[in-house]
Structure formats: C-alpha cells, structure tokens
From TrEMBL, chain A:
This is 3-methyl-2-oxobutanoate dehydrogenase subunit VorB. It comes from Ammonifex thiophilus. SUPFAM superfamilies: Thiamin diphosphate-binding fold (THDP-binding) (SSF52518), TK C-terminal domain-like (SSF52922). Residues 248-342 form the Pyruvate:ferredoxin oxidoreductase core domain. GO terms for molecular function: oxidoreductase activity. Keywords: Oxidoreductase. Transmembrane segments: none annotated.
From TrEMBL, chain B:
Residues 23-170 form the CobQ/CobB/MinD/ParA nucleotide binding domain. The lineage of its organism: Bacteria, Bacillati, Bacillota, Clostridia, Thermoanaerobacterales. This is CobQ/CobB/MinD/ParA nucleotide binding domain-containing protein. Pfam families: CbiA. It comes from the Bacteria.
Length: 353, 229
C-alpha cells in the first residue's frame, strides 16, 4: 500500500538512491529543480555526494569521471541543459560508461519556455551528440513508474556499459502521486566493474577509459562492437504497456505524460462505441515493435499523439511499414493536448476510415 | 466536531499566511480559505508569493477565483510562466492595510524567504499557519515537522500561529491516514508550543465522528487527464 505522496522530480532522485546511486552532478533548471533540491538533502543522508557544478558541461564531465571510476552516477536537467551536455553524452557512449541522465523536458527550441513538452524525442532516441551511438531511453508515465524505472535504468546502464536517458516532462516532474517506495537496503551488492579506473591493486595493470581511436580501422571495429551491443539491446530490452489493445481497431500510441491523456481519451472513445486501444512504449530506444505486430490483424488505423509536432510518429511509421494508415496529433511549445482534443481528432480519423 | 465551519471563519485573522514544506498543500489551503472567506463576506485578496513552483500555484486559478470575489495578486498573466521571482508592489500595501488577505507562500525555507522580505509590513494580528502533510518526504516524523517549522519560520522571519494537518495520499487517502497525520502534527505542535487548528480533508471523506476539527476541502484539479474538457 502506498505510504508516501511524491513529486515526480523527487521520485527520480529517490529511485536513484534506492538503485545504489551515490553521486549526482548537475545544475538547476526549471522544471526539474526539485530533483537536485531533493538530492542535495537526501544524498548526504546516505553517504553520497551531491555537487552543483558550474554548468551542465562541467556536470556531464563529472559524470564521466565518476562513471569511469565505477560509481553509480547520474545527472539531470531540462531540454536546453541536456543540449549543453551532448558532447559529454557522446563521449560517455564512446567510452562505454554507464550512467543515468534524466531529461525533464520543456518547450523548445532555443530557450523555449518552462512548460511541459516532449520535443526532445529525436535528441534522446536518434543521437543528439555526434557519432554512431545509441542511448537506452526510458519513458515513465507515472510517479510510481519513475521510481521503478530508475532502478531499471541503473541496472541497464551497467549491463550494457551505456548511458541511459530517462525522459520526463514538466507535468510528470511537478505532479504528486501516492507511491510505494522500492526497498531500501543500504549499500547494494552490485556486480563488479573490472574495467573501472580503480588503480592497479590486485590487477597489476591500469585500466584506461578513452574514446580516441586514431586508426580508422580500429575505430570502425569499435563501432561494430557497439552496434552488436545495440542489437543485443534491441533483442532483449523492448518494453511497453498496452490498454484495451485486444479488439482495438483504432490504436492510439503515446508515451509519458501524453499516454495519461491518451488513456483517458481511449476510455471516452470506448464509451462512444469506438473500438479504441493504446500502445504505450516504455522504452523509446529500443522501440517496441511487438505490440504493433500484435495489433495489425484488427487495427484499421494508428493515431500517434505527442507533445511535439511529430517525432515518435516516425518510429511508428518505420514499424508499421505502410500496412496501416498512421495519423498524428500533437501540440507543441509547451501546450498539452486535452482529452477532448484527442477524442475529437480520433473521431475524425475514425469517421474517415 | 467534524465540520470546522462556520465558527472558525467568524474570528479568522485579517491576514492569513499559509507556509510549509514543498508540496504540503499550501496552495490548496489558500484557495479554499480564500473561497470560504469570500463566500461569507467581503472581497478577498489572494497573494501568490510562490516563486519556486511554476506549475501549480494560486495564479493558475486566477480566472476561476474572480467570480467568487477572490482577486489573485501576482504579476500580470503574461508572466505566469516567466520563471522570474517578480512580485507586484501592491503586496506590501495589502498586508499593512485593512483588506482581507490570504497569502500562498512557496515551499520550504527557500520559498518562505520571499515572505521574509515582507516582515516589516506584517501586523501582529496576522495568522501564520504551517501546512503539514506527513505523507510527504521530509515531513513524516515529529522531528522532521519540527525542523521544517523552525526552518520556515526563520526564513520567513515570522512567528507561527498554528499548524494545519493536511495529511493525505491523493486518491488513495483514507481517514486512518489523516488520523495518523494528526497524531504526528499534534505532537510536533506540543514541542513547538503551537495549536493544531484543524485537519483539512477532501469533502467526500468527511465524517461526523472524527476526533478533531475538519475543514472540508474543495480540490482544484490541474492535470490534463483529470478534466474532460
């Protein structure tokens, strides 16, 4: 039974602590500042280190250092701050360093505004930094799921030696929901990291963390090895949730906060006799294709709903491969589509089928 | 005993200030008290001093409150999402004047620091209430509540008048949760030498046999999936 009422931003922090994270480096920015505010108090309580860096660039490179030394480490920011971190994120991916990066998205591009948005999907899922790399990307849609996915995020980061991006937005970060906290058992027994830069004791040789490979053939081999790792993620780590998908002829697709609105819209559409259902990707990379394949036999159309002008919809189209029409509805700049808007657009799509 | 109304608002201080930890329910309390006072009597000014929470604060409900006779005092609506610690000049005049004023303060010591800037405008009649939800992080024990009270009073440069038990778990709140919160808040009040004024409780949970005074709360949903319009 839930005992605590938590803000999403606090849940990112508490979830990290319960996953054994003891290092946070970051810089405040609305709408995620409750997260560093929370960890500034909580981390010292558990013997951890909270450090407010002089900038996001410094913070992400501190993450690089702590990750290289084998620590469970995280940073968080909101859209413009995450943009500043992109060089460091590419280096983390290139050096195969595990860490967790939280992006509580706000309106963009540029300075944009502090209202909730989902317009950093491309940045999180398709690159953002330079080079052939991928981030595992998780998209919780409730405060409880933030807590749970933070644990998964750290485990996946270690498992694949890869940065993990967790996407939220201003609503998810600021809203409060009752939660059940994951167990807290003090220091966790985590798998050893024999590659970490922990000195030569017991090993005789020093470990080196690096992403510089001067010979093209050597760098190509590194990239091929990374690709094999990404393929393994695609085989093993796809996660999703469906709602009323069985028998659904009109399939809504949404992630994070937008999935809460879409779910309410599906309920309204069902009340009006329209066979609607929902696919909610939980991993945005790797993108979950299985629920789409399961829906093909009945689905007459997909409707992707996002708080942007159409980003995840591209992955839906790649997955659907023209077998079914894919429609899109989105608001941007910090405007959140209402349940009524989504319902009305869905009805228009339905009537034209 | 269950319903604190109408008696408590007959002698309610001209200026009532709601402070407390982040997410303790100050805005909901301020909105409810402003609405109750406005429905009983004259015009009420609701001063929004929250410069740290951009999403859920009194100014968001400006248009909903206006027809009830509650005027929200905050920078112009165009600046609602400005993320700037801007405050209108009218606040000092209202606090020191004769009008009915309700003040919604930002969370924790950092939020209360803004209140500290107005210490010289406050008259001794002002009521300063600490809103407590013991289901929130850093407010779950007597020690934590006492610490929060001292930190906020110091940052806000005020003396607290009393505590308000706003313990709840959102949709899964039970009366037992509220009772347990009352026990913790009452004990903290004993240590601080302060009374617990009432328990705030969602309207549908109010019963006649509760062993403490209750203010039935009107909720102000603001999440996009909570409204069908």
């Amino acid at each position: 039974m839930p005992r605590v009422l938590m803000k999403g931003n606090e849940a990112f922090g508490e979830g990290a602590i319960r996953a054994g994270c003891r290092y946070f480096f970051g810089y405040p920015i609305t709408p995620q500042s409750e997260l560093p505010h929370y960890l500034a108090r909580r981390l010292p309580e558990v013997g951890g280190v909270y450090l407010q860096a002089e900038s996001e660039v410094a913070a992400i490179n501190m993450v690089y250092g702590a990750a290289a030394a084998g620590a469970r480490v995280m940073t968080s920011s909101s859209s413009p701050g995450i943009s500043l971190m992109q060089e460091g994120i590419s280096y983390l991916a290139g050096a195969e360093l595990p860490c967790v990066i939280v992006n509580v998205m706000r309106g963009g591009p540029g300075l944009g505004n502090i209202a909730p948005a989902q317009s950093d999907y491309f940045q999180a899922v398709k690159g953002g930094g330079h080079g052939d790399y991928r981030l595992l990307c998780l998209a919780p849609s409730s405060v409880q799921e933030i807590l749970d996915l933070m644990g998964l995020a750290f485990d996946l980061a270690d498992k694949y030696r890869n940065p993990v991006m967790v996407l939220g937005d201003g609503i998810l970060g600021q809203m409060m929901e009752p939660v059940e906290l994951p167990p807290y058992s003090g220091e966790l027994e985590l798998p050893p990291k024999p590659w970490a830069t922990t000195g030569t004791a017991g090993r005789g040789t020093r470990n080196i963390i690096n992403s510089l490979y001067i010979e093209p053939e050597e760098l190509e081999a590194v990239n091929l090895r990374l690709r094999a790792k990404y393929q393994r993620m695609e085989e093993e780590e796809k996660r999703w949730e469906t709602y009323l998908l069985e028998e659904a002829e009109l399939v809504l697709v949404a992630f994070g906060t937008m999935a809460r609105v879409a779910r309410a819209a599906v309920e309204r559409l069902r009340e009006e006799g329209i066979a609607a259902g929902l696919i909610r990707p939980i991993t945005l990379y790797p993108f979950p294709d299985a629920p789409f394949h399961a829906a093909f036999s009945r689905a007459r159309a997909f409707l992707v709903v996002e708080m942007n002008l159409g980003q995840m919809v591209e992955d839906v189209r790649l997955t659907v491969e023209g077998r079914c029409p894919v429609h899109f509805y989105g608001r941007t700049g910090g405007v959140v589509p209402t349940v009524a808007e989504v319902v009305n657009f869905a009805k228009e799509v339905w009537q034209k089928l | 005993m269950a319903n604190v109304l109408p008696n408590i608002f007959a002698s309610w201080p001209r200026v009532s200030i709601f402070c407390g930890a982040l997410g303790s329910g100050k805005t909901t309390l301020a909105l409810n008290v402003a609405w109750r006072l406005a429905s009983e009597e004259e015009k009420v000014y609701l001063v929004d001093l929250d410069v740290i929470n951009p999403l859920f604060r009194s100014r968001r409900f400006r248009e909903k409150l206006a027809p009830w006779g509650v005027e929200v005092i905050a920078p112009p609506p165009a600046f609602d999402l400005s993320d700037l610690p801007a405050l209108p000049a009218a606040i000092g005049r209202l606090l020191a004047g004769k009008e009915r004023v309700v003040v919604d303060v930002g969370g924790d010591g950092v939020g209360a620091t803004v209140l500290g800037a107005y210490a010289s405008f406050l008259t001794p009649e002002a009521g300063v209430f600490l809103v407590v939800n013991t289901c929130r992080p850093f407010s779950s024990t007597v020690e934590e509540v006492v610490r929060a009270a001292q930190e906020i009073a110091q940052a806000g440069r005020v003396e607290l008048t009393g505590l308000i038990n706003n313990t709840h778990l959102g949709e899964v709140t039970t009366v037992e949760v509220v009772r347990e919160g009352w026990r913790i808040v009452e004990e903290a009040g004993r240590i601080l030498g302060l009374p617990v004024i009432f328990s705030a409780l969602r309207e549908d949970l109010v019963r006649d046999d509760l062993p403490f005074p209750v203010l039935p709360l009107k909720l102000f949903p603001f999440l996009p999936w909570q409204s069908v319009d």
